[in-house]
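The freezer alarm interrupted the setup, so I double-checked each line after restarting. Inputs confirmed:
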Amino acid sequence: MANIISDETIEYVGILAKLELSGEEKEQAKKDMGRMLDYIDKLGELDTKGVEPMSHVFPVKNVFREDVVTNGDIREDILKNAPGKKDGMFVVPRTFE
Amino acid sequence: MELLNMTAVELAAAIRKKEVTVLEATKTVLSQIEEKEDTYHCYVTVDKEGALANALAVQEEINRGLKSPLAGVPVAIKDNMCTEGLLTTCSSKILGNFIPTFSSEAVLNLQRAGAVILGKTNMDEFAMGSTTETSAFGVTKNPWNKDHVPGGSSGGSAAAVAASECFYALGSDTGGSIRQPASFCGVVGLKPTYGTVSRYGLIAYGSSLDQIGPLCKDVTDCATVMEVISSHDAKDSTSVKRNDTDFTSALKEDVKGMRIGLPKDYFGEGLDPEVKGAVLKAAKVLREKGAVVEEFDLSLVEYAIPTYYTIAAAEASSNLERFDGIKYGYRTERYEGLHNMYKKSRSEGFGPEVKRRIMLGSFVLSSGYYDAYYLKALKVKALIKKAFDEAFAKYDVILGPVAPTTAPKLGESLSDPIKMYLGDIYTISINLAGLPGLSMPCGIDSKGLPIGLQLIGDCFQEKKLIRTAYTYEKARGAFGKKEDGAHGKAI
Amino acid sequence: MAKQYETVIGLEVHVELATRTKIFCGCSTAFGGEPNTHTCPVCTGMPGSLPVLNRQVLEYAVAVGLATNCTISRYCKFDRKNYFYPDNPQNYQISQLYLPICQKGRVEIDSEDGKKFVGIHEIHMEEDAGKLIHDEWDDCSLVDFNRSGVPLIEIVSEPDMRSANEVIAYLEKLRMIIQYLGASDCKLQEGSMRADVNLSIREVGAKEFGTRTEMKNLNSFRAIARAIEGERERQIDLLEEGKKVVQETRRWDDNRGESYAMRSKEDAQDYRYFPDPDLVPIVLDDAFLEAVREKQPEFREDKMRRYKEEFDIPDYDIEIITESKHMADLFEATVALGSQPKKVSNWLMGETLRLLKEKSMDPEEVGFSPENLAKLILLVDAKAINGSVAKEVFEVMFAQDIDPEKYVEEHGLKTVNDEGALRRTVEEVIAKNPQSVEDYRNGKEKAIGFLVGQTMKAMKGKADPGMVNKLLKELL
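Predicted 3D structure, all chains:
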């Protein structure tokens, strides 16, 4: 395996992705990610100098809406699935120190 | 004809002629579901009451003159499309209690055409998988042999059609998720050109690759459903304005002069000989019908999988950030502070395959790796698109297998992710290039499992696929499951 | 000898655009709604929802870019900035990193050393976040997404400023330009204009930049000036102690007059930007840019030049009036209705500014119409009301934009021009105040002032003081 994934990398990616892996999951993730990256490294065989990266397949462009209010108050709907709500708002763990 | 053996179009005609009521059709399919669900488990949610109530309402509309080729026909919806008031889980614990307050545009299009929604079908969690085994709500079994997987990720939709637990279904296809399960379950599936069906209300996996499409009993149903669900949607910026969505006009038995290319790389190492034999036989049938069939070199086939997994994982890692335990879905019970709540909710709410792809996607986008992985993949994507452009300068349709093998046994695939990813080799480059792809049965292997044929068209050329598929279907004859005789007769 | 330090400052200015709807959905941007009443699936990150760009956002962004001498990108895209925070419903913010809409601009400011240019690195479009409210009672936070998805432009300057004064001059200049465009009201206190300060120090004469910090939560010019002073001192102290400045984001606490680092081990600051696949590229052609350019207003410099040629009013008046496009528009519209420029200017410079200051309002908030101001001037010109009555009427007009003619009529405020009635009143006043009359006759000129006042009082202010004076002198 060419790509050796360190504990630090898994830890770091866990912070980015907000995932907390158990010891066993971590070992598995290191192995999986290493193998996948080895596999992805295959793309390095291709010369892509001067190739424009393609994010959209079609030349669809300039899709706009007009600046007109179309939405009314649907607060009840918006809050319907919330695990915690209060005073018309979503409840989250304290964010202020 | 027995009701459950009817195609969607046949049933709609019978309803129009008042040979059967919408309620009768709905009740019949609901009792089929009741009978078969324990065995196959195609659905996450069956909305029995909703379907019965809806059946009466649709009958009213038909009586008042609703003209639609699908009016009154019961349909199953993959569980990653939002349905107002009806549980929508993506087969994930993290959305285990999520009830959308709006419906996806494709579903609304069906409802406007008088569809009766039966329920939501099982799938690989967030459409990540090729077997429907990554669902948090149990595995779906292949109606042809319940020891085998139905394929995925739209495995529930494909199996439901095969087991006559619905008359047709909607699926979504990011890397083969309609075509491969259609192949494994012996039904017809179509992934349209990117932008043809609105993605509004489809819970995103890889936004630049996702497309909704139909899974049906035959090509006629497939073209009919496509005609109903295609629309330009101002709510989806990537929706394309097309005025050629009269797909049923392509239901013609005529491939004279049609140029069909067989990519050599699609028939090489790794392809099961029985699958190869059946697909080549189908090609010969088309040649006999007047098509010009020849082999050619489609380059870059082996680079499609790493390109796909880089792009899809990157987009998924971002698309799935919104599942955080705040606005909807699962929140862990015990936590200390905000970040611990995020981490625990997500770690407990997502399954292993989803976590694997989120981790990979976060990594390839992270500082220092973006250029080497993500940007590189976008460049290779451009090369793959170019290779298809060159192929379609010479051919109207590309023909090949859908998957290297027929449906594997349950539990065989998940242990080795890379091997599982390799199973997508013939389907995923189509998503990268935004092309339409159709999958239809072309034989049965020695294990009694269906073999799929894939037809690939250039962008916006669904009609060529439908014409080719329809011609082949007529030549092939009816295709159905022996044991249940569910639809049509066995070949 | 102590080392001499130079402060190097760059600004990231966020401006909330004055659109009716949010950047990617049809929800209202109006202030003051109940929490979460201006929300929809798109701006709350519901599964399956998709963004569609508001055309007006693009037009405003291009307008500001043109007005700040930027190059407008003919091809631009949106990117996702990924970070988890509860005010960010998707846990990514749609913004622009790789291909921002405007680049390489500059604006001219007046600094202590004369005119100078501040470079603009780029301007990009993005969405605002929701609001977090701390709930003391339950010891939790509450999220309101009404502001989520409100369109912003972020104007990133080059590190071209060297003092708090230059920073303020730059901000005032930006605010003026944007207000002239009508693209935003740019209120720092209300958060429709927000500035983050990037600051580093280096020894005078040094070529390299020092390590910079980014300061957030600055919601007044005063706070910005104080924060710059505070951060400059903090960094100098660090260097003098032989320590290093750490590159970090700091939050300014204006009450305590100090900043603190906003750091957490859960905060990797690795935003994993990538092009948003849900939005398509924007390709701008000449026609679009021309259309935006044609809509550009006359900016202040040109206006000042023109006023000097067209109107006979002092330079000082011109400077003050053109500081606000609204005031300038009001001035021109009133003059166009036939009022004399100097008289219009007097009302704007005098009573209007006084009342604005008294009520701590912005010139943009002046609510009376040019028609009513012109009528008021006409009433005074025609001597239909006197000066003090005019001021009284103006105050009502300032508050409620009433029609001064009607108001004067309805409240009976017209000057009494009937000489007979006035003569009778003057006679009464003379009869009631023999002492003052005697004083006057004994050469105390001032006594007549008292008698004028008494007459005005008896007339309830509705007399022409000049005429009263004349009559008094005649009868005495």
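Quick read of the result. The longest strand of chain C covers residues 114-127.
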